[in-house]
Amino acid sequence: MKSFNKIIGSTIAATAVVASFAAFAHHSTTMFEHSKTLQITGVVEQMHWTNPHVAVIIKGKEAGSAEETTWLMEMTSPGNLIRAGGWSRNAVKPGDKVVVDFSPLRDGKKGGALKKLVKSDSGEVFTANIRAQEAANLE
């Protein structure tokens, strides 16, 4: 009986540790200044279609700037983007010329939460509202 209780106790402890790591692994969207929208024009360098967040790396210029820099745009998960409509693994590819509206990072680094991406050559529009798409589904 003692060894059974040890096994149960160890299992419960291990489950608690794993659950706590999962809770810390996901961050909120407070790192972004959602009240601001900036725009960059550039070329997609990489598209990372992975969980927990899709990311697009763009080399481009901020509106009104002559300096070209590399920007990291974060979105929600692949599943949320697919459900939102229009997005797929191959929707945006390296080499695509794009115009991106985004909420900048609060710390001033070159990145943000992508709001809208327009492919310059085709005019296709893709939206990604990380706050709405990651809201709890309590219905």
TrEMBL record:
Question: What domain of life?
Answer: Bacteria
Q: Which organism is it from?
A: Polynucleobacter kasalickyi
Quick check: keyword Signal in the entry? yes
Q: Indicate what this protein is called per its UniProt record.
A: DUF5666 domain-containing protein
UniProt keyword annotations, A-Z: Signal
Entries under InterPro entries matching the protein = DUF6152
What is a single Pfam family found in this protein's UniProt entry? DUF6152
Residues making up the signal peptide according to the UniProt record: 1-25
